[in-house]
Amino acid sequence: MKAVRIHEFGDVDVLRYEDAPKPIASPGEVIVKIKACALNHLDIWVRQGSRRNPSVPHILGSDIAGILEHCDTANAGLSVGSRVMVHPGVSCGSCQYCLSGNDDLCAQYAILGTGDRGGYAEFINLPYQNIFPMPENLSFEEAAAIPLVFTTAWRMVVTKANLRSGEWALIHAAGSGVGTAAIQIASLLGARVIVTAGSEEKLTKAKSLGADFGINYNTSDFVAKVMDITEGVGAGVVIDTVGGSVFEDSLMAMGKGGRLVTCGTTSGPKCQINVQNLFAMRKSVLGSFMGSKGEMLKAMEYIQNGKLRPVVHQSFPLEQAREAHKVMTERANFGKIVLTV
Fold first, then answer.
1. H or E segment to which residue 147 belongs
2. Hey, which of 34, 40, 85, 200 would disulfide with 66, CB 3.0 to 4.6 Å?
3. Before 57, cis peptide (omega within 30)?
4. Strand bridging mode 284-287 / 254-262
5. Residue 29: CB partners within 8 Å, gap ≥ 6?
6. 328 to each of 37, 53, 267, 302, how far by Cα in Å?
7. Kind of pairing between the strands at 58-59 and 29-38
8. What residues contact residue 174 under an 8 Å CB cut-off, 6+ apart?
9. Residue in 237, 96, 103, 83 with CA at minimum distance from that of residue 157
């Protein structure tokens, strides 16, 4: 099969479009013929060698949509030829965490594209538990833009933050995949949504997804702006995928009893916080990492009825993976960048 693989860690030049062995299904696995695979910042970090450092040659890619080519229909409940999408988190399927619906806590949990397999290829082998029927109203590119970001955003906004109708929600990186999903979920819950982004164009697009207010972090102090917008109340919930430089300010932008949920460090993993403000204002900091299959199913209910929708910025053919990575590195995208196979 054709695939994009890395044989060493580094910049975009290490991405090679080449022949690779076609995977073989083990017992309990299916083979999916990949039609689209969306990019994530995780792909860049693995490519650069800053996350996990899998053995090489390695295939990146976590978000997959395609056609079921091989399966045991008695187990999978889907027939060969079905259009499917893939949950990116692979677990053992039999431990106490997997059986209780908390599969992301499994000791064997790994995200596709960070271990021994990924979606920058024509085929992939997977546990049958990881495939979901693909809604008929979606293209393969749209379906690939859903799994990781909507599962992550659902966990952050609903499960972790417990965002309630009428609360103020501050969502950073409005143009990111998680950002575009979180805006829609927060709006769906009836929250008043404030977003940050680095351009007026991105803020305008965020408002079309349900954001009520936008703050350009290049021209404004977002803490002061949030306090002005909320008339001094502050945000009840902050959804942070950025970390680093904005983390401390995000805590200051929250009101009493606020909850900051963090899942990423695109601006760096280290920061300083005012601990006195944290406990005196009864604020909470919650770590979040991807989400369970059950949380993806909940998000899919609203995608199927049109209340949530994937946002695709641009598609590239698989052989142009280098160009796709450049766009993501430059942060020029609003929504997901997708490779088509």
1. helix 147-154
2. 34
3. yes
4. parallel
5. 125, 126, 127, 128
6. 14, 20, 14, 27
7. unpaired
8. 180, 183, 195, 196, 197, 202, 203, 205, 206, 211, 214, 334
9. 237
Phi, psi of 228, deg, nearest 5: -70, -45
pLDDT digits (tens, 9 = 90+) for 243-286: 887 888 999 999 999 999 998 777 677 778 888 888 888 999 99
> Is the pTM of the predicted complex or chain greater than 0.90?
yes
Per residue in 75-96, pLDDT (tens digit) is: 556 889 999 999 999 998 889 9
Are 191 and 237 in contact by the 8 Å Cβ rule? The answer is yes
CA distance 31 to 124: 6
Q: What is the pLDDT of residues 20-60, one digit of tens each?
A: 999 999 988 999 999 999 999 999 999 999 877 799 999 99
Domains of the chain: 2-146+310-340 (3.90.180.10), 150-287 (3.40.50.720)
Looking up tokens 């399966």 gives: 71
Q: Which residue type occupies 28? A: G
Contacts of 324 (CB under 8 A, 6+ apart): 39, 314, 316, 337, 339
Rounded CA gap, 90 and 112, in Å?
7
Give the chain's count of helices (H) and strands (E): 12, 18
14 φ, ψ to 5°? Answer: -80, -10
Rounded-to-integer distance, Cα 314 and Cα 331, Å: 13
Q: Quick one: DSSP state of residue 25?
A: P
Angle between helices 177-188 and 200-208 (to 10 degrees): 40
